[in-house]
Write a structure and sequence with these properties.
357 residues; 13 helices; 2 domains
Length: 357
């Protein structure tokens, strides 16, 4: 063999490749969230942009502060706090007061991540914990919605965005000038379906509008199509377990379908259930949190199905129109138990039997 001849090396399996680092995974999640953020800004304007910047800055600043206070190296550059800030903004109303959004970011990082020991140790999704806190602390502000595609959205803030701490937000009457009366509703599709509008009960929204994102709602929860495309990017790069969103959406579809078949006049159609509210964003980017979800093959299916079932039950029978946030947090709490109960049997061994007493 001459020096110019190629040397072929034959190796036996397994052929292992270097797994992506935490930084690489988190950075790709940020990439996947950016189109959703861009659409939120296009849909709601300056207020959505400010909301995204404030929550992201609040989360990264909080993490940096606690790293400095504890004398540990900074962990801001792993992008996990950035993801928390982006997700938090996308789950909030576009006109949510910015100071309240900053509080939500601080709580999400400090209470859920720092107190549990940092990335890899948090039991719950930090963005959802931050939102749950402001849901309880500021119930009026978090259920105040503004129209999408307002004419002056790129030149004026939604008045409630710039509300000072502990002050009453200004009315948005002047801000929505130019929008026809029948083109604006202060409720989201979920609220219209659950509570009706005026004397008309169970007002439904066109599924195509829900799929494309032509409706009012939280800043980043409106376009199911865009969320699915961004989730597919992560799944194809093997940076998201596709089984979790599939199981969650399947659980929600089956549960909603059973109620719809029982009484189509009283309960929404399954497709509306999947496309409305935070179902898609929650399934793709929240429930699939690698840290707060099970890792066993059977566990991810049980986990996703449970969340989908609970989300529909809370929507239909709870006092609020949305239930995805609470369902995912409940799933996070049950994740260790689900993982323990679905551990596969080690090859060549028998399952332990519980002794009789």
């Amino acid at each position: 063999m001459t020096d110019k001849q190629a040397i072929v090396q034959l190796r036996v399996a397994p052929h292992l490749r270097h797994a992506p680092s935490v930084d690489q995974i988190m950075r790709n999640v940020v990439y996947a969230l950016l189109p959703i953020c861009a659409f939120a800004i296009y849909q709601f304007g300056l207020s959505a942009l400010a909301l995204i910047l404030v929550t992201t800055l609040a989360c990264t600043s909080t993490e940096q502060l606690f790293c400095k206070l504890s004398g540990k190296p900074t962990t801001v550059n792993d992008f996990s706090a950035v993801i928390t800030g982006l997700l938090l903004a996308l789950t909030l109303p576009p006109g949510f007061p910015l100071w309240m959004a900053a509080v939500a970011g601080f709580i999400g990082i400090a209470l859920t991540k720092v107190m549990f020991g940092g990335i890899g140790f948090n039991v719950f999704n930090p963005a959802l914990v931050g939102r749950a806190f402001v849901q309880a602390a500021f119930p009026v502000a978090i259920t105040t919605w503004t129209p999408a595609f307002a004419p002056d959205r790129f030149s004026e803030f939604i008045p409630s965005s710039l509300t000072l701490p502990f002050m009453v937000p200004e009315p948005i009457t002047d801000w929505i000038k130019g929008i026809p009366v029948d083109g604006f509703s202060g409720a989201t599709p979920l609220a219209l379906q659950k509570f009706g509008e005026g004397n008309q009960d169970h007002v439904t929204t066109d599924n195509l509008d829900l799929f494309l994102g032509m409706t009012s709602g939280s800043a980043g929860e409106t376009s199911a199509l865009l969320i699915l495309l961004c989730g597919a990017y992560l799944a194809l790069r093997q940076m998201m377990d596709w089984r979790i969103p599939t199981a969650m959406l399947s659980g929600a579809f089956i549960t909603a379908g059973c109620f719809y078949l029982f009484d189509p006049q009283a309960y929404p159609a399954p497709l509306f259930t999947l496309l409305s509210g935070g179902m898609m964003l929650g399934a793709v980017f929240m429930a699939s949190d690698m840290i707060a979800s099970p890792t066993t093959p059977a566990g991810v299916w049980v986990y996703g199905l449970l969340i989908g079932f609970l989300a529909v039950i809370i929507r239909l029978f709870g006092g609020l129109p949305e239930g995805v946030m609470y369902a995912i947090l409940f799933g996070n709490a049950a994740s260790p138990l689900i993982g323990a109960a679905t551990q596969p049997r080690v090859y060549g061994t028998r399952r332990k039997k519980v002794p009789n007493r």
